[in-house]
Structure formats: structure tokens, C-alpha cells
Amino acid sequence: MDFLSRRTIRKFKEKEVEKEVVMELMKTALVSPSGRNRKPYEFVVIDDKEIIKKLSVAKESGATFAADAPLMIVILGHENPTWDDDCAIASTIIQLKAHDLGLGSCWIQTKEKVDSEGNATDENIKKILGAPSELKVHNMMALGYPDEEKPAYTDADVDMAKLHFNKF
């Protein structure tokens, strides 16, 4: 897979993501690396348009485009010392596998965000999904078949000044 061609996608075709594609994606997510192999992550896969619309306004800005996504995944975690990192790893695995399966994706940040009325985004999401209160929301992911094309990154986009060997 060419990782340099994976780009954030915010426009999706009005095409359902097939169940077998979703299951392939989620099987990969469910074996994502985690601290001490605790696998503290939980995933809610949403293909119900009404629920997706509600999630798209669970935060004040930055998620309204997702109302048109055919698929969303909410990544939650059971709190432990590595839950945040483990959920971030699983989210990245989802984006890379989605790209491999021909899907586009966009990570939607939820941490410390609020909706237009000042309500906590994570509480909004848990309420919409009926998620247990002890779970922590990590992020939401909008997915679908891309309806926009973005050029792959090139060597010119790779900032080698950020790469260090042995010492900073």
C-alpha cells in the first residue's frame, strides 16, 4: 500500500459501504496494538443516516461535513494508563485499512470540545449512542467512498528536518 497517497477525505459518494468491507475494516481495528494487549477500545459503527446527522452536530464545528458520510465509527475506550494511546493507534489503523479498502476517511477530534450550546461533545456522543458512562470517547471517524481527489504526498512534502537519528 502506498501510504503517501492516503489523504483526509471530507466528501463522500452517496454509496453504502458494503457490510463485508465494514467487517474487514473492523477485524483489523479489533487487533490493533495496545499496551499490555489490554485492548481497551470499543467501536460503534454507524450507518443510520439519522444517527450520523446527530453526531455531526455533537460538536460546535468541524464535523458538519460528516452528515453526508455513509459511515461513521466512534472510538471509545475503557480508561487505563494507555487507553488514549491505544485508541489513537486503533484509529490510525482504521484510517490506513480504510485507504487500503478504497475508502476515504476523516478523523474528527472530540477531546474537550463542546456543541453550539456549550454541552460537552463526549457526553453528547455517549447519549446519542447509549454508551456506558464509564467509557471515554476518543474520536469519531467519517468514512465512505471518496467523492474528491487529492494528490498523493510527494518527497517534497516530507519534512526530513523533523527526522533525527540517535540524538536530537
Q: How far is it from the N-terminal to the C-terminal residue, by CA? A: 30 Å
Question: Would you tell me the structural class of the helices and strands?
Answer: alpha+beta
Task: Please work out how many helical segments DSSP would assign.
Answer: 4
Radius of gyration from the CA trace?
A: 16 Å
Secondary-structure element order, N to C:
HEHEHEHE
Percent of residues in helices: 25-40%
Question: How would the global form be characterised?
Answer: globular
Mean pLDDT: 97
Low-confidence stretches: none
* Arrangement of strands in the largest sheet: 1-2-4-3
> Percent of residues in beta strands?
15-25%
* Largest sheet geometry: 4 strands, antiparallel
Tally of extended strands? 4
Please explain how this structure is put together.
With 168 residues, the chain is of the alpha+beta class. It is 28% helix and 18% strand. The protein has four helices and four strands, in the order αβαβαβαβ. It has a four-stranded antiparallel β-sheet, sandwiched between helices. α1 packs antiparallel against α3 (83-100). The longest helix has 18 residues, at 83-100.
Architecture blueprint of SSEs:
Layout: H1 19-30, E1 41-46, H2 49-56, E2 71-78, H3 83-100, E3 104-109, H4 121-129, E4 135-144
Antiparallel strand pairs: 1-2, 2-4, 3-4
Helix pairs in contact: 1-3
Notable characteristics:
single chain, 168 residues, alpha+beta, 4-stranded antiparallel β-sheet, 4 helices, 4 strands, globular
